[in-house]
Model the fold of this input.
Amino acid sequence: MRGLCVSESGTEKALEEKEARARLESLLEEHRDLDAAIEALQSLSAHDQIQLARLKKRKLRLRDEIAILQDQLLPDIIA
Done:
């Protein structure tokens, strides 16, 4: 059985934060791309409702994941 490391080194935390920020940027970019794709699909007179619904659902999942990462990176400060 493996032991749990109670504290992380500063290097590990910095690396974890760097990876989280990179993931956040990637998610934000994908969210923007989905927004553009949804807008383009909606502009078509005969757009695919199922595809549109899938894109919107994916966009909502991304928004939730973005919010979680942002909360991890920018914790609330209680004054």
